[in-house]
Each structure stands twice: as structure tokens, then as C-alpha cells.
Amino acid sequence: MTFSMKLYLVRHGEAEHNVLGVGSSLPEITERHLTEQGKAQIQVVAESLKDKPIAAIISSPLLRTRETAAIIAEATGIRVDIDDRLHETTLGIFNEKPIQLFFDKYPNPEMRISPDEKDGVESFIDMRGRLQRFLSDLAKHYTGQSVVIVSHGDPLEQLHGILTHESPGISSTSWYPAKGSCTEVTWSGE
Hints:
Elements: E1 3-11, H1 16-20, H2 36-49, E2 54-59, H3 63-76, E3 80-82, H4 99-105, H5 124-142, E4 146-151, H6 153-163, H7 168-174, E5 182-189
Parallel strand pairs: 1-4, 2-3, 2-4
Antiparallel strand pairs: 1-5
Helix pairs in contact: 2-3, 5-6, 6-7
């Protein structure tokens, strides 16, 4: 059976950890709110979505994405569902540390296909596994409809790669969502 759906991939707006240059993943030790600029970015996205026939808004569980989804929900009148599979890359030993330490260790995104196990960093392969399961469930419930997905840069990058049939390595170097952005993708499959 074939299916098609429209997905709006929304990256959270600018958040406190972005300004501070700190890694922030699960476990969410310090909740990082959207900044005023981040709220303004998402207000623009919300305005662009308010008249679309959206069936669902599904968000990562981290605070910055929940705040992003709430702004969109207010504009669209659609309630927000939380799905843990949309969470930020697990940063392991780099969580709550200066994010530059992470990028110093992994300067080439393709290195994250198989990161150093002792770092506890989630690989793109593992991330894709959880995102594939998410998409499988999405197809079961929302075929023929439009869904807003609120997540983080890396998961959205790899999700986009899955939807456009790119490998994890190609995905990690071809497209990356800006903070507070919305990218429309039509997903078709069997």
C-alpha cells in the first residue's frame, strides 16, 4: 500500500544553550528556554503554518522544543504530542559541557556515524533507528495528512536524509536546518 504525507520539519528557535555555547541533550540536567529571539523566530513559523490543514504537532521532549511547539499550537489550535524519539543527539560526556569540546573531538560530521563508544555519544546509525521507528508509526496514523515535527538540528538533518533517501554520511553534510526554521517535505512510500 502506498502512502503520502506532508511533513513540516521545525527546528526549535534559538535557546539559552545556543547563546551559552553549551551542549544540551537528554538527560536534560538544566532546562534551556527559548530566548526572545528564538520566540520571535518561531512566531514567524507559527504564522506560516496557522492556515495549513495540520493533523498533528509532534515534539521532542526537551524544553526548547516543547516551547517551540506550544507557540505553533497556539497559532494553529492543534494540540502537541510528545515523542521521545525526536530528542536531541545524546551527547554523553559532552552534555552540559562547552559544545566546542564535542566539535573538537568530532570535527567531521561523518565521524559520528561510529563515534568513540567511551564518549557515550549517539551514533547517526542509532539515531536513524529511532527515527525510522518514529516514521513507521507516523505512516500508520497520518497517511494523507500534514504533520508538524518539532525537533533539533541533528535529528532533523538525519530525518530529512531518510525522507530524501540519503545515507547518514551524505545527510550529515548536505542539509542542516537553521534555528527557528521550517522545511516542508512531501514523504511518499510503501
